[in-house]
Amino acid sequence: MKSISSSSSSHLLIFISLLLSFATFTFSSSGVRVIDGLKNYSELRLPNGTSGPESLAFDCHGKGPYTGVSDGRILKWTGTQWVEFAITSPNRNRTLCDGSTDVNNEPICGRPLGLKYDTKRCNLYIADAYFGLLKVGPNGGVAQQLARVDDDGVPFKFLNGLDVDEKSGEVYFSESSAIFQRREFQLIIPTGDRTGRLLKYDPTNKKVQVLLKNVTFANGVALSTDDSFVLIAEFSSSRILKFWLKGNKANTSELFARVERFPDNIKRNKDGDFWVGLFSNRVIGTSTLIPWKKLGDDPLGVKFDNNGKRLEILDGRGGQELNSVSEVKEYDKKLWIGSSMKPYVAVVN
Ligand SMILES: *[C@@H]1O[C@H](CO)[C@@H](O)[C@H](O)[C@H]1NC(C)=O
Ligand SMILES: *[C@@H]1O[C@H](CO)[C@@H](O)[C@H](O)[C@H]1NC(C)=O
Ligand SMILES: *[C@@H]1O[C@H](CO)[C@@H](O)[C@H](O)[C@H]1NC(C)=O
Ligand SMILES: *[C@@H]1O[C@H](CO)[C@@H](O)[C@H](O)[C@H]1NC(C)=O
Ligand SMILES: *[C@@H]1O[C@H](CO)[C@@H](O)[C@H](O)[C@H]1NC(C)=O
C-alpha cells in the first residue's frame, strides 16, 4: 500500500516536472509574462580571448547576429562560427589588440558598443565608445567615421547606444558622459555625473544636434515605429526617458518607465514593443527602489509596449549564465542576449 502510493505520487511528480519542462514561461501576480531565461538556453561562444558582446544586430538579409567585442572588432555569426567583419579604428594594432580584454587598450583598439543595421541601405551603424559614430557597408572592413565631435566641436568622450531612422537615415545616439571614458565607467555613479546626452546625426548636412542634456549615464536608445519619439535609458537612475520628436510635445522629454536594476540597451521588436536589457551585476548590488521581486526573482530584461506598460520579464533564475545582461534582442522568435562582460552571446527560444 505504502509503496503503491509513493510510486503514484512519484509518477505525479514526474508528470508535473514534465509539464513544467515544456513551459518556458509563467505569469507573475501582476499578469506580466515571465520567461525563464535558463529554459531552452544556449550560448554562441566568442573566439578565445574576447568577451563583452554588448549589442547585437542582424543585417538586411536577416543574417547574424553581428556584435562588437572587447578587442575592438565587430564579429559576425555565420551560423556555425564567428568571423571578423569590421573594425572602428583605422590604426588598430593587431598585435596589441586581437584577443585583448585589457580596457587600457580600448583607446587604441576601439570598443564598438551600440550597433544597428539600416536594413534599407544595408549599412551597419556603430557607436564606438572611443571612435565616435561610424558606419560600414555590407562587406565590412574599416568603418567610416561619421562624427567624432558635437556641434560645438567638442570631441565625444564615451558614445554608447544608437538607433537609425530607416526612412530619413537620421541616427539617434547617446553619449554616456562628457567627463569619463568607458574604461572609467565605474566613476560615473559615485561622482553623481550628469553630463550624458542624447544626440542626433543628420546625414544631409552631417551635423550633430544635441537633443537632451544632463542625462545620468545615458545608455540605450530606441526609436518608436512611427518615429514620434525616441527612448533613452538612464543607467544609473534606473529609468527610461521618452523624448518627443513629433506632435505638440516635440522637443520635450518625460518619464517613460522606471525599471529595477540598471537599464542598458533598448531594442524595438517587429511589433513595435521595446526590450530593455537590465544589468544585474550582483556584486555591485542592485537598485532597491522598486520591489522587483514581485515581478520575478531575477529580472534581466523587461519588455514594454509603446505606452510604457510592462508586457514580459526575462528572468535569469539567479544563475551565473545571464548575470551581466546588456541587451535583449527579440529576433526570429528568439531572444538574443548581449553582455558587456560574458564571453558569449546567449540565446533563449
Ligand atoms: C525549445 O526549443 C526547441 C528548439 O528550438 C523548440 O522546438 C521548443 O518548442 C522550445 N520549447 C519551448 C517551450 O519554447
Ligand atoms: C579555446 O580555449 C579553450 C579552453 O582554454 C581550448 O580548449 C580551445 O582549444 C581553444 N580554442 C582555440 C580555437 O584556440
Ligand atoms: C603594436 O603592438 C605591439 C605589442 O604591444 C608593439 O610591440 C608594436 O610596436 C606595436 N606596433 C605599432 C606600429 O605601434
Ligand atoms: C549638465 O550638462 C552639462 C554638459 O552637457 C554640464 O556642463 C553641466 O555641469 C551639467 N549639469 C549638471 C547639474 O550636472
Ligand atoms: C524642435 O527643435 C528643433 C531644433 O531646435 C526645431 O527646428 C523645431 O522647430 C522644434 N520643434 C518644435 C515643435 O518646437
UniProtKB/TrEMBL annotation:
Region forming the signal peptide: 1-28
Keywords of the record: Glycoprotein, Signal, Vacuole
Pfam family, one: Str_synth
Compartment annotation: Vacuole
Domain of life: Eukaryota
Any single Gene Ontology cellular-component annotation: endomembrane system
An MF annotation (GO) of this entry: hydrolase activity
Keyword hit for Signal: yes
TM segment ranges: none
Strictosidine synthase conserved region domain residues: 160-247
Protein family membership: Belongs to the strictosidine synthase family.
Protein name: Protein STRICTOSIDINE SYNTHASE-LIKE 10-like
Natural source organism: Senna tora
